[in-house]
Amino acid sequence: LATLSAQEGLRGRPFANIFSLSDGPPGPFSGSGVPYLYLTDMEISVQDLEINSNASLTVSLAQTPYCKKHRYDPQNPLCAHIIFCGSIVKVNDSEAGLAKKALFSRHPEMESWPKDHNWFFAKFNITNIWVLDYFGGLKIVTPEEYYSVKP
C-alpha cells in the first residue's frame, strides 16, 4: 500500500508499506473484490491516511505459488499484477461484520492482536484499476468492470 507521507522528513513523498488484506473468506464465490484491511492509528501509513486518504495498492501473483511454478520473475508481466488507486475509508457498522469475517478467516492471528491498539476495519475504495498481465503495457479496467466479473 502506498501513501503520501505525512511524517517529518518524508512529508509529501511516496511511502509504501505491507498490509494483509482480504476480500472475503476462503472458498469459491466468497470474494467480494473489496480489499478489507485491519488497521490501527498507531501505524505510520494510517497516520498518513488520516491526512490524505488517497492511496494505491498493488497485488501480485508473485504473492502466490503461480510465478515460482512457472519460473516467472516477479517483474515479468506474465507474473500478473493489478494496481488499484483510490482511498482508504473506515467501514460502517453494517459492513464491519463482513470485513471481520473476511480478514479473520484468512488472517486468524489478527483476532489476538493487542486490544489496546484500537484496531478498526477499513476498505480500499477503488476509483481506478490498472492490470499488467502481458508485455506491451497496462490495461485499464473500470471499477464497474472489476466488480461485475464472476469467477
Automatic annotation (TrEMBL):
The keyword Glycoprotein applies. Residues 1-148 form the CREG-like beta-barrel domain. One of its GO terms (cellular component) is endomembrane system. InterPro entries: CREG_beta-barrel, Split_barrel_FMN-bd. It is found in: Secreted. Keywords: Glycoprotein, Secreted, Signal. PANTHER family: CREG1 PROTEIN, PROTEIN CREG1. This is CREG1 protein. The gene is Creg1.
